[in-house]
Structure to design on (523 residues):
């Protein structure tokens, strides 16, 4: 094939794309009307499983932005066995993530030893007021519904000890 | 024929009344505004909003009106309500005048474009000379804007624009000279007549649009127009990634809008001039209907002419915008080298060849 000058080829590319868009449609979607599903492991928002949290503060301390606020107090719980000493448990009073500061690094999710934090692909939570981006314990708990099922473990992997 | 603008022709033929002089003047002004703003709006919507988007495999504005057709109205509304900011250290009077100077040069330019045998604003003997002279007025406005902004980016952009517009003015003038030699007139109306009444080696079914005989001139002219309009690949003066839009950096709201209209209105008017010079203007080949000169042309061409002109303008504007969306930016030295070392010698050669053929044949 004869060599086509680059200048002409460039014009051909744009004209070709023009016809492709007119006949086959664009590569983009019209966002508010139609949405593309984000990948299941996408980092949209962090969800909190409150029951697993022991307010150990590891997440708050590892957060590069210091955007996690945790307050808790100690409580006495009934003993596990008859006649035992009452147990001391940590009770979570406040667990806030400030999404105005969060940079979605995911270190808190990685570092949590009790599987209390999860990534959810949900991304539509912008607010007109910046203060509303501070998600409290209740709201972070609501995100749990959107967390996808954990993928199957690889064959031969160690089963998690309960 | 009296000097009647298109609108006056329409009014006269529709209502069978003679339009008084003041009415004609009014219609002329209205016609001029329509002839400048209508192409500008059409070019912005059809090419800038839609065609560019399609070429990048996206849809462009879709929300305002059906298929985003009212987007331009929304944009104009947005610009009008924005604050009109003048920088503190700017030369305020000059700063405010500059965009108007740019737009005025466009309005002056459309005054000589003929739209039909009787539908024109002025029948000026030295029409194309006037058009080329007036088109370089915009350099003044751009230099004023660049200097008065008191901003280093604006000044750099203004100087680059001045250097570029002056460099590409020359090949443009020289490319037009070939047409003038062939048409033996500088009157744009007569140039149209010469093309449509002409013949190629005795075959007159096509007339003789100068794009065929003056192909070199046409290419040089279109490249120069691209540079005059500071459209990519010649957008060094407004290079947004390095000069923050050059001489337009400090402009906001209404005055930015004027620059914006000026840019695309000038694109429209230059497309009109290019179609007059090279594509046969408003005319259809006279041989089809047995016309011989401008006085024998039927009256309906006054209505069909503008439509033909707009069609040709859209074609030329399509090419301008297509090139704009396809090519990356020239470097400043490449840009100057291209004008002085390629375009000017080529157009000089074109003039020499044209004059030799004119004398011999």
């Amino acid at each position: 094939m004869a060599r086509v000058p680059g200048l002409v080829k460039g014009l051909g590319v744009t004209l070709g794309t023009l016809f492709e868009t007119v006949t086959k449609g664009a590569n983009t979607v019209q966002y508010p009307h139609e949405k593309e599903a984000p990948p299941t492991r996408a980092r949209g928002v962090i969800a909190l499983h409150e029951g697993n949290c022991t307010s150990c503060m590891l997440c708050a301390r590892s957060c590069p932005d210091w955007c996690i606020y945790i307050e808790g107090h100690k409580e006495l719980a009934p003993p596990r066995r008859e006649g035992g000493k009452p147990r001391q448990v940590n009770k979570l009073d406040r667990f806030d993530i400030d999404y105005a500061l969060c940079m979605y690094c995911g270190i808190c999710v990685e570092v949590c030893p009790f599987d209390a934090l999860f990534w959810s692909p949900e991304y539509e939570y912008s607010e007109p007021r910046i203060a509303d981006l501070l998600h409290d314990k209740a709201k972070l708990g609501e995100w749990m519904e959107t967390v996808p099922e954990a993928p199957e473990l690889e064959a031969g992997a160690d089963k998690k000890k309960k | 024929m009296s000097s009647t603008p298109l609108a006056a022709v329409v009014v006269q033929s529709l209502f069978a009344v003679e339009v008084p002089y003041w009415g004609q003047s009014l219609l002329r002004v209205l016609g001029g505004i329509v002839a400048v703003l209508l192409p500008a709006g059409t070019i912005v919507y059809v090419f800038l909003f839609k065609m560019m988007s399609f070429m990048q495999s996206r849809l462009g504005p879709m929300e305002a009106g059906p298929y985003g057709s009212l987007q331009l109205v929304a944009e104009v509304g947005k610009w009008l309500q924005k604050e009109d900011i003048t920088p503190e250290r700017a030369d305020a009077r000059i700063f405010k005048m500059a965009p108007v100077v740019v737009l005025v040069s466009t309005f002056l330019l459309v005054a000589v474009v003929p739209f039909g045998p009787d539908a024109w604003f002025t029948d000026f003997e030295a029409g194309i000379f006037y058009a080329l002279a007036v088109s370089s007025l915009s350099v003044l406005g751009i230099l004023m804007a660049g200097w008065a902004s008191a901003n280093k980016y604006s000044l750099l952009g203004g100087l680059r624009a001045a250097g570029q517009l002056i460099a590409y003015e020359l090949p443009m003038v020289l490319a037009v000279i070939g047409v003038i030699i062939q048409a033996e007139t500088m009157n744009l109306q007569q140039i149209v007549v010469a093309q449509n009444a002409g013949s190629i080696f005795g075959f007159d079914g096509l007339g003789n649009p100068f794009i065929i005989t003056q192909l070199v001139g046409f290419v040089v002219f279109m490249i120069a127009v691209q540079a005059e309009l500071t459209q990519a690949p010649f957008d060094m003066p407004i290079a947004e990634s390095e000069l923050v839009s050059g001489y337009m950096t400090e402009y906001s709201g209404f005055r930015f809008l004027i620059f914006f209209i000026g840019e695309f209105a000038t694109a429209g008017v230059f497309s009109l001039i290019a179609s007059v010079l090279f594509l046969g203007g408003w005319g259809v080949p006279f041989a089809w209907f047995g016309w011989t000169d401008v006085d024998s042309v039927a009256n309906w061409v006054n209505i069909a002419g503008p439509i033909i002109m707009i069609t040709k303008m859209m074609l030329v504007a399509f090419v301008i915008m297509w090139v704009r969306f396809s090519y990356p930016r020239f470097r400043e030295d490449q840009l100057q080298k291209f004008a002085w070392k390629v375009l000017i010698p080529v157009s000089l050669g074109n003039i020499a060849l044209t004059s030799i053929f004119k004398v011999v044949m």
